[in-house]
Amino acid sequence: MSINNLEYNTERDKLIIPEYGRHLQKMIDQAVEIEDREERNKVAKAIIAVMGNLQPHLRDVPDFQHKLWDQLFIMSDFKLDVEAPYPILTKEKLEERPEPLEYPQNFPKYRYYGNNIKRMIDVAISWEEGDLKTALTYTIANHMKKCYLNWNKDTVDDQAIFNHLLELSDGKIDLRNSSEDLSTSTDLLRGKKKNYRGGSGKKNYRSGGNNRGKKRY
């Protein structure tokens, strides 16, 4: 070969997906030029088989074949007119901007509760009134109390937690006049297990201080 006929990569067209190499790109370009549709379909399937052998690590990826067909259309610059076993990827679909992600809601005043608390509160609001919603609400309040104690001090009044819950729920969860008590600070900090009274099957939660006959959650 004459030195004048040498091709330099800088003079060649840029590869769309470089991992497959220039020879496969040429195969795809030639397939686009095939006039007979049936022959084009056969060549496209042969190219897919070659692509699969060149990318064995993709075999564990869900929808492996679908990914290969999408890459085939991308490398043909969406000019390859063939039948595919999957919806044909279009340039418009590829360039379509994804929906913006929802950023976590931040509450600087109550950062110690964490963003998951707000998600749990939103779930509780969406539930119908009943025992399950009540149990979830008090579970959230207890977790808020534990978070508060971990980051602030050794004791906290339940009413403070109820006020925070009211604010974080936009006024939709109001336990301020509740006859129930949350778990004690001691139990939350030491991770003590809840105790249950036998016999009648009613729940009784051990707590420190004056219980005043209230149920504890």
From TrEMBL:
Region annotation Disordered: residue ranges? 184-217
Q: Which Pfam families match?
A: DUF4290
Domain of life, per the record?
Answer: Bacteria
Q: What is this protein called?
A: DUF4290 domain-containing protein
UniProt source species: Aquimarina litoralis
